[in-house]
TrEMBL record:
Pathway membership: Purine metabolism; IMP biosynthesis via de novo pathway; N(2)-formyl-N(1)-(5-phospho-D-ribosyl)glycinamide from N(1)-(5-phospho-D-ribosyl)glycinamide (10-formyl THF route): step 1/1
Enzyme Commission number: 2.1.2.2
Pfam families, per the entry: Formyl_trans_N (PF00551)
Function: Catalyzes the transfer of a formyl group from 10-formyltetrahydrofolate to 5-phospho-ribosyl-glycinamide (GAR), producing 5-phospho-ribosyl-N-formylglycinamide (FGAR) and tetrahydrofolate.
Protein name: Phosphoribosylglycinamide formyltransferase
Ranges where the Formyl transferase N-terminal domain occurs: 7-182
Catalytically driven reaction(s): N(1)-(5-phospho-beta-D-ribosyl)glycinamide + (6R)-10-formyltetrahydrofolate = N(2)-formyl-N(1)-(5-phospho-beta-D-ribosyl)glycinamide + (6S)-5,6,7,8-tetrahydrofolate + H(+)
GO cellular component, one term: cytosol
Organism in which the protein naturally occurs: Mogibacterium kristiansenii
Taxonomy, superkingdom: Bacteria
Keyword tRNA processing: no
UniProtKB keywords: Purine biosynthesis, Transferase
TM ranges: none
Gene assigned in the entry: purN
Amino acid sequence: MNKQKARIAVLVSGGGTNLQAIINRWQAGDLPHGDLALVVSNRSKAGGLQRAEKAGIRNVFLPKEDFEARLIQLLEEEEIDIIVLAGFLKILSRDFVRRYPDRILNVHPSLIPSFCGDGFYGLKVHEAALEYGVKVSGATVHFVNEVTDGGRIIAQKAVEVKPDDTPETLQRRIMEQAEWILLPEAVETVAREIVEHESEGE
């Protein structure tokens, strides 16, 4: 039987604004090749879990004990095809990443290879960009491999840096103008490729 849709799991640690961008597109029918099936968090009070609950998506908190083993079990239960890291602040092991080649997506708030790698996350990225004096920043969606922010780039979008920017204002502009647009688009692109590839293989 041909696969009609790729099943998507989103991993979150915080408020889940990037998750919400994907939910919005999915609910609007603009994710035709993907189905949001699961949201997982390593924090019990993560806002992303509440967003998933409100949208009727299965949502699960996993404690740090045996986190990856429990996660793998969940992913297999739900027959997940794509894993999206959306503000997920836990480093996945090399073994886990290698288990899902070209199936784990991450959004990073800069134009990779600038301001990325170990230690660059959240406001630290924007602080570094402003300190360096760049005139353009943005966001990158990439596949995840064992190198932090080192996987193949799927999509990028540039955003202007303004002279009076603070890390907080730059962060917000990049989310609004790049991350929330780019991530759902990239998820649909990968979902379409999976569906088409598996259909061809029938």
